[in-house]
């Protein structure tokens, strides 16, 4: 399919992203483009400049293919990263090269002939039968005997390997040949294994790759232990480079994963603010966290929980009249849908004449065009905290602190689903049973019900 976007258009899109403060998803959404396609343009531009969008070359030499595969395996690159690095446009080419190499070695990477098939050749003359043993020389018999011994030893070798190492893979062939080199000539073993000499040495190098990183692993372990687990792969890479070690940070990250090393310092928490996006409403609430009746002043925010390296996000909305959580939504990712579903549940609580003031921070969810549209349809007035001032939304921050102190930190959770169910049960308890002194010793629902009955 012919590319429908010109190089000039791609350059404008990339420059819009690089010169702005918004993310790729926002730029792609504004222009009606696919996110993955825009991300590929940016990566091609960063790697190759405007030339990264030139026409794809059609033929690659076996040496180039081998270089691509070696770089991908050595640095642990993904197929997409490798395509960007070597400017390969053909879809699925790298995966196809890998399959060809594993099935037939370097010879399988040779380009196939195209065009008209050659004319059929005359059938070859029958090969003469090998001379009888009595007609062969003593040297020929000894050579044949040596080959038969090497072939017999090679065929028995896979039976001695582990259950996962049996098979006809080129790497396993090379491993079997290497194990027999001290007993038989290499040329005879390669002939018995039908393995090219170049492929054997390449596989031997790959098999020894882990041993090549053994000194580097020891230095990484020493740095990690010296700093008592406080350093992650980025700082360990910096220490290695200061010592004169030219090493890529991705290699350090991969080796640390193999060693089971991970920074013990708590990870950075989720921050909703990610730059200027959309219109920021004024701070109309101004920390007036009281209301004379239901559905007059609402506050909302998003908080994060973590269970076994999995995250869960909670988006509630609170009525400042009685501190009741009138709606909430949980999910594994802080996407806009989390806020949208929460808002729709909260809007179901409104009566026809209710026009609450809805206060938030300046997170991107609340500056999103769809958020403004949903709020405007209900004729709800927006209010936002000042940038970097959490006290402007202290009522919701106080609820998050209570939830984590009274429930999250007092319990152990095996799964995120278990935490998700527990949060729903706690919010029901918080609304219906947990009493508050400022509500005359009543729970939020009891206080609202009693006030409505008296009025």
From TrEMBL:
Signal peptide: none annotated. This is IS3 family transposase. Residues 290-452 form the Integrase catalytic domain. Residues 105-138 are annotated as: Disordered. InterPro entries: Homeodomain-like_sf, HTH-like_dom, InsJ-like_HTH, Integrase_cat-core, RNaseH-like_sf, RNaseH_sf, Transpos_IS3, Transposase_IS3/IS150/IS904. Residues 120-131 have a biased composition (Pro residues). NCBIfam families: transpos_IS3.
